[in-house]
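Regression test attached.
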Amino acid sequence: MKTAITFTLFILFSCGPVAAQELLSGNVTDKEGDPLPQTSVQLLGNGRTIRVTASGNFSIRRPQAPDSLLFTHVGYLSKTVPIDAGTKTLRIVLEVDPGMLQEVEVNTGYYAVPRERATGSFTHIDNELLNRSVSPNILDRLEGITSGLLFDRSNLSGEDINGKPRLRVRGLSTIEADSEPLIVVDNFPFEGDVNTIDPNDVESVTVLKDAAAASIWGARAGNGVIVITTKHGRYNQPARISFNSNINVVSKPDLFYSQQYLPAATVMDIQKELFERGAYREDDRTFLPGYVELLIKQRDGLIADNDFNAAENAMKQTDLRRQSLQYLYQPAITQQYGLSVRGGSERYSYSFSGGYNRNRGVSVGNGDERINVGMQNSYKALEGLEITGAIWYTKQSGKNNGRGHLKAASIYEGLVDENGNPRSIISRYRSSYHERAEESGLLDWMERPLDEIRLNDSRTSAQTVRFNGAVNYTFLRDVKAALSYQYLVSESGGSEYHDKESYYVRDLVNRFTGEAGNRVIPYNGIMDYNATSGGQAHSGRLQLNYSKSFRDKHAVSVLGGAEVRQTITRLTPGVTLYNFDKDVWTGTGQLDHSTWFPTRPSGSSSIAAGVGLPDKTTNRYLSYFGNGSYTFLERYTMSTSMRWDGSNLLGVKANQRGTLLWSAGGSWEISQEPFYRLSAFPYVRLRTTYGSAGNIDKTQSHYPTISLNTNGYTSLTYANLTSPGNPSLRWERVNTLNVGLDWRTKQQRVNGSIEYYTKWANHLLGSDLVDPTLGIPTSQSYKVNYGSLKTVGWDIQLNTRNLTGALSWNTTAMLSYSRNEITHLTRPVLRYAYEFVTKSVPEVGKSVDLLYATPWNGLSADNGLPVVYVDGKPTTEVSAYTNYVLGLSYDELAKVGVTVPPFFGSLRNNIQWKGIKLDFLITYNFGHVFRRTSMSPGDEYLNLLIPRYHMDYFKRWEKPGDERFTDVPAAIGVSDLGISDYYRYSAALIDKGDVIRLRDIGVSYTLNKNTFSRLPFRSISLSLYARNLGILWRANKSGVDPEFPSADYPAPRSFALGLQFSI
Amino acid sequence: MKYFFFTLSACLLCACGESFLDTRPSVRQRVPQSLADYIALLDNTGTMSVSSHALGMIGSDELYLTEPSYNTFPTGVNHNYQKRAYTWEKRIFEGNESSKLDWNDGYKRILWANLVLDGIGNLSLSAGDKAVAEQARGIALFHRAWNYYNLAQLFCPVYEESSASESLGLPLRLEPDLTLRIGRSSLKDTYRQIIKDLEVAKELLPVNAVTTYRPNKAAVLALLSRIYLQMDDYQHAYEYADQCLALSNELLDYNTVDVNKPLSFTPLAVGNPEVLFLTTLSGQMTIYLRMLTTTYMLVDNDLYNSYEDGDIRREAYFLKNSDENFNFKGSYDATSYSYFTGMATDEVYLTKAECAVRLGDIPTALAAVNNLRKHRFLPDTFVAWDVRDADELLDRILAERRRELVFRGVRWEDLRRLNKETKYAKTLTRVLGDRTFTLEPGSNRYIWPIPLEAIQVGGYEQNER
């Protein structure tokens, strides 16, 4: 292609009127063959510069005498090429200057600005950095490489370790409202599921952190904005086909990590003791653990001693977790494939991409798939007129038939019997009741977890189509008008099929079987079609940009516009089909749903007809915005922005539907000043901004609001009070001050930035403590503007080039600090200070994340119980703890620290030698604490079916002197709430959360056509990537991973193998 | 699509954004504006047909827990208060009890009633709608009175005419305005307000309601009768009971009840002629009021043993467990774990009988109580009482009342008022292993503490216990 162009040009030029003078023609490209039209070409002999066309071509008259051409381009190493009268053609390839900061444009979604001119605080993640990890979720890829962005996983509990972490951009700016940042994709707020975005389609991500950056996004930008920009074709770029694929294997989880269990023999001892005390009610409606059933049989003489002993021994040998690992878990395997074609001619650019993801879940029976197809075109229709259009399609499907770890059952139970057949380990009612079912004419009423994986089929599916279009028109040379539009349509639903043989069907049929054995529910498969939800979002924006430079001294850039958005969500109820035949898809939804049938073993119930109610939600937003910046002498920049946001809030006075937000900022490139002399730092720039952003809560209203429904029994319409109304409601507002300093040393060996910020969040909404006498239950989310919060912090980033040359070594270090303090709260003081311990209660002058604990004075040497002080005197009376705990004052509580790390950051090293690249990331979190679990005295006698066991049982105080080694109180033989709650929340169980972990390592080997000319590809690379490799250091001695303090196990290790090539 | 583009250009060009933002966000949600909307609030059975009787039920002498079962009762803030209430602790709440509290839910229903009363008052209605609006007003007034009365039985001292103006009553919220701060009224004012609302409701409500979830005129009269009985005003109690029975006097013949069913009566009291007004104690007890589920609660043995042979109630109300103790299965609303706590004619007969004998009218008392008993016994074992001694008859009627109104929430009220009479005063005891707890007649532990959030934020005077 490019040869052809060169050739054509050559012909053109040689045939033209200037053909008499012989021409030297050439072209400039980068390593990958893309033209570099911005290159400056200078003939050194006379200093004349030569124009380079958009396709990278240039031509000059051949010099008479030997001369040289100097090629320079920002971001590339300069090159000098000797020429003489005999030189006819030149093909110049410029190498990227590894030390040069790439000319980065930060994109806010409304405008793109070179980072050097931006006054606000941005973090820009380029494509290469995004692709160093392999997660199929784009947000996950930001972890550890984005300054000031914290992934807090302390909310993930149980087995939900891959759940959504809480993202914090520069700490908190709200107490109870949503603290998630706004996600913007291709210039519009993204209303869909961020999981539908294929990371292969993403060109770059920009995180907007301060007011100047975010206030352009207005009312929803209070928590920061993450702007995702997808890949586009470029004009004048030869077609390029790239393919990449990787396979990621995640190990089975470590079920033995959690300490909240006791070995089989111990559990059996405890259950025996309880049984002998008569703690188990023996009636048909209460489930009893397997060993207790065995003991009952022995007591009643229903089992021979030999058989009893054999069964008891078998139980002692069993460990449910071992069997679970064997039968319920598998290594997860994720496969990702992506193919794209991009390119463009002078007037037309295009991009096509397709991706396929397939994930086998860690639980047997779980998995999901995702298909992405995208197409993007730009066309320069006329001079100054550009039309772009893009369409993206995503289809996701998943099946969730996995069972997870069955913690509810006793650990001595096996999933299979001695012959390997699936067996029942837990049931709704007493197992003997279930076993008797078949004798009394009912169906088999046992649930065997292993069979159920096969007998149920639960699926979800979702599709999203996104269409973007824009018309950009430049007129009067400096004015650009842009009309852009986005349409997003999505649909999601699911189904659950229960086979005739499944426990779900048998249980339902049995429960509804009448006294006479008559069946109310047909004994056949049941298909549950879940409610489907469909969404449509239209967004449109009209924007005018004006930018102009005057006499190289003044540069002005102004934009203004309006934006309108509407999202509609429709919910269609699902339907339950009984008597469902899977082969021919016949079934009935019409059973008698209004009669209350007696159910077994007691009560009565009506038959479920399907889930969900039809609903339609319409959200509308209207905004006007403006933004301006002025640069003087390329060293002083001022910027300002303003935005009005309105929304169709329900039950609000018309003048309170909107809010006005603004920002202002400035920067000063000190190093440009004539008086600047510090030659070690050739670039120093100071910048600062101040401004406001908002946060919106659409559930609140000024007037009372209701939602309507129909009562299935009385057939009367009934209403729910969704909000009692709050006439003094205001919008939350966050004001942010940001001060930053950017600097570079000579030859760019070291560069970095340091930023300081303060955020004042006011009128924060909280549902905390309303007088229930008003009639608003505390559980209802009735919120009032009740507090203010101040967050202070800094972000430091340091990039160094430790080695340059053939072996290069770069390091990036990040450190962020953030702390918050509640500055104002209208909440009254609580009666019991103990409430601070059991749930998170904000308090003036303290951090939102502060963790409280009951004070700890060690164990008594006499009886091994914790010492508490009542009326100034130490006591260990079991009866004293309840009153002690309720009598604690706020000052007595131990303020043990914050649960979210105030210091966090990462260290990334990148080593390259020829085509080999090694990259590893170390992340660290410091300064926070977490609460560890343990076993309180008497816990073994509480909650018989899901007991609060813990291996600390074996660390219990047993004899005087033990108190020097252990904090675990002695056994007391009875359950006691007071002592249990005291110890569970005591300072003894607080551990430091500080941790340094090796997050990941990536190794890759790349071959380029430039270095290997026989290669059939432009480039090919092979990579290995390993994640969650382990903890390098942690402050706590209890072996807990502080990233997952409440989960059953930490994220397992994963290993990925990847292949990329491009043609 | 076309419309959208039209709007887009319209808004961008003319900046007429106000109407664009007028759309309601959700089709199901709105600011209540019509009579139907307000009636719909009252017809929300999940809220309005649940009653505040839990603490009284837990504290009464109808139930007990064995020690092992008490010890294995779940922990957590929503369970702990039930455990403490069971042994009548001084402090039962620790704060943060999230829901299903008698006080909180009672006041929630009062707020809804106030919203309806206020909203309907501001509507401009056609002549036809006015009659419907008056009925809705009657229902709202009834709900407000009914909830204030139930809360007064839990959180206020027992009514005594001599001291009622000095005793602490309830905060009387009569408007939906959430910004109003209202302190506790006197007990006298609380009862006066309750009776005032009911006197108005009595004139507004129809004889026959569309559903038993809506109160009818007989339900108002029955409630008035219950209130006057609680106030020891036997004359009024008798009159209202009599008026109520004049409107609705049917009883369910237990000989027609299949006592072998797991739950003896019909779900939602379908076809039960006794039920005048249907409410239950929380339908979600398995989550919130676990103490009142059959897993933990057992029926008091004295109560069980008090039934004579031939009394169908023994089999209709109780289920014998394998370990020789008893569960309750006799709720008039036979959905799972649901206790009927509304108004029914059986209670009115008993009130009438009690008042009649206290007022010296033994024949009327006998007629009322015998009519009830006749519907409860196997025909061949039924023997009509013929007692001429007023004291003995009162003893018997009160014993009958205990046997009849089981797990209806009424027992707590009866204990409170009867404690004033030395003869009927009873000391309640709980035994847990070697620990014994007692509740003396007239003890201030008969007045439950108000939830902490209300005290902290509302600043009300807490009950001395």
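Expected vs. actual: identical. The domain at 2-94 of chain A is CATH 2.60.40.1120 (Immunoglobulin-like).
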